[in-house]
Design brief:
Strand order of the largest sheet: 4-3-5-6-7
CATH architecture of the domain at 44-195: 3-Layer(aba) Sandwich
Helix content: 25-40%
Largest sheet: 5 strands, parallel
CATH class of the domain at 44-195: Alpha Beta
Shape: globular
Radius of gyration: 23 Å
Length: about 525
């Protein structure tokens, strides 16, 4: 065990604010590399100072504890600086997809009541006035560029002018740390309310796994988007928890990332199935994974053949399962000590998990049931009033159905929600249907998820055209691209004469799924 790992285990600090992780990492190893991106690098000491500057800068704009700040940044050094700075200032971070269209971004800003937006999106910069009109509480737009449109503030100048004195967080524990938008039954995303307690608890739970998920001498690959809960907490958060190093990659390219992994001797890879599928076909996959001691996969099922391909290279890929609402990790095959095809493993330390039937009773052995969980990592309900959160006893139903095998490992079999999971990103059929249904040639439309080799699931649309109207699939998708992020766009559109309906007039998506599977 290294000296730095030993000091980590002996540390008895009680952390209450997620940004305290950076302060602790800086105290343990101020000159230790924290983040590497291209030719740029920040040590933990430098990141600690940058977070102080960001906290002072945001507070200097007039933002007060509890105010929401939307962070629409890619995997660059700016993201952790602004994220940890916002939390240190007592603000609520609202990580925001960099691929959002103007309507999607406007909805998120208005729904969250964001006071500030920090963005690197050119589209957002060009739409500043329209965004302010759609989200009246948006008082400040900070652009991650040397200059921006009138009425915006350049982030570099803002940070440069801010003092670097240590900033003591005024919030923590049960105070709200982040709003992360996820599935909603209304067809619109809803924000899961994650407290400092929940985010820190999940890091502590992951840290109790043996072998240790991350230690100070590790080098992590952070190509998962930091605006996604998987990249944000088990990725960036875990690197800060351990005081490890992380290589930030803003755009996934299989050949380039393998070269980076080899150059920086990456030891930890939190990834998604689509990444492993792409890497598996690369000539340099063995060289890229030569230093990797721990490969993790989540957000979607990993094909068995991909698991086998990496096993042939001597690399075990451990799969896990979680939700935005649980900060996010719930289970992992690491708990059993071996990668198991088709399984997402067992609950991690500190997570209670049961399988229940539709009457809320525990299922019989080997029977499938809804995954219901309890733990300190659970969210506090959905924004803004905390509704639909854990019950009075702390239990939360996931709407996912699984069965446990003889070893106690879980196997996912169904999802009660109609949510479509595309490479770990939530797509809400009602939202896509609402956009497609607005096209003048479309009379009725239904959207389902279909299996996809690379993304786990893909979006497929069935459309009925109006009499005497016509539109091609290409033109319909091009039209929808103005309102939907790329991952939400259907990969296929099938024009049909009619859609199947139930006796109550509701579209029978079960029949559509059967037809898609048969086809």
């Amino acid at each position: 065990m290294s000296e730095r790992e030993g000091s980590q285990r002996d540390d008895t600090d009680v952390l209450t604010n997620v940004a305290d992780l950076v302060r602790r990492a800086a105290r343990r190893g101020r000159e230790h590399a924290a983040l590497l991106q291209g030719s740029s690098q920040l040590t933990w000491g430098e990141l600690d100072t940058s977070a102080d500057r960001a906290a002072a800068a945001l507070a200097g704009l007039g933002l007060a504890p509890g105010d929401r700040v939307a962070i629409q940044l890619g995997n660059t050094l700016d993201f952790p600086t602004v994220y940890f700075g916002a939390l240190r200032a007592g603000l609520v971070a609202v990580p925001t997809n960099t691929g959002y269209t103007e309507p999607e971004l406007a909805y998120l800003l208005a729904d969250s009541g964001a006071t500030a937006l920090v963005t690197s999106s050119v589209a957002a910069m060009e739409a500043v006035e329209r965004l302010r009109a759609a989200a009246p509480e948006l008082a400040h737009v900070v652009v991650a560029a040397p200059s921006g449109p009138e009425g915006t503030v350049p982030l570099p100048a803002l940070l440069e002018a801010a003092p670097a004195e240590p900033w003591q967080p005024a919030t923590g524990g049960e105070d709200l740390a982040a709003l992360i938008y996820t599935s909603g039954t209304s067809g619109r995303p809803r924000a899961a309310m994650l407290t400092h307690r929940a985010l820190l608890a999940n890091l502590d739970q992951c840290a109790e796994i043996t072998p240790r998920v991350v230690v100070p001498d590790d080098v992590m690959l952070l190509v998962l988007p930091l605006f996604h809960v998987y990249g944000l907490n088990p990725g960036l958060g875990m690197a800060a928890w351990a005081g490890a190093s992380a290589v930030l990659v803003d755009r996934f390219d299989p050949a380039e990332t393998l070269a980076l992994m080899s150059r920086h001797r990456v030891t930890n890879v939190p990834g998604a199935p689509a990444m492993y599928l792409a890497w598996a076909d690369q000539p340099a996959v063995a060289e890229g994974f030569a230093s990797v001691r721990l490969a993790l996969s989540g957000a979607a099922p990993l094909p068995v053949e991909t698991l086998a391909r990496f096993a042939d290279l001597g690399v075990q890929i451990f799969e896990g399962y979680g939700l935005t609402e649980t900060a996010p990790v719930l289970t992992s095959t690491l708990i059993g000590g071996a990668a198991k095809p088709g399984s997402v493993g067992r609950p991690i330390p500190g997570v209670e998990l049961v399988l229940r039937d539709e009457d809320g009773e525990d299922v019989d052995e080997d029977d499938p049931g809804e995954i219901v969980v309890r733990g300190a990592n659970l969210f506090s309900g959905y924004w803004p009033d905390g509704r639909d959160g854990p019950d009075e006893d702390g239990w939360f139903g996931t709407d996912d159905v699984a069965y446990a095998d003889d070893d106690g490992d879980l196997h996912l079999v169904d999802r009660r929600k109609e949510l479509i999971l595309v490479s770990g990103f939530n797509v809400y059929p009602a939202e896509v249907e609402a956009v497609l249904g607005q096209h003048p040639a479309v009379a009725e439309v239904a959207v389902i998820g279909v299996r996809d080799k690379y993304s786990g699931e893909a979006v497929k649309a069935y459309a009925v055209l109006r009499p005497d109207k016509s539109v091609s699939a290409v033109d319909l998708l091009a039209w929808a691209a103005g309102s939907l992020a790329r991952f939400k766009l259907p990969t296929a559109v099938e024009f049909v004469e009619s859609l199947p309906h139930s006796a109550t007039g509701k579209v029978s998506k079960a029949q559509l799924r059967q037809a898609a599977a048969a086809g």
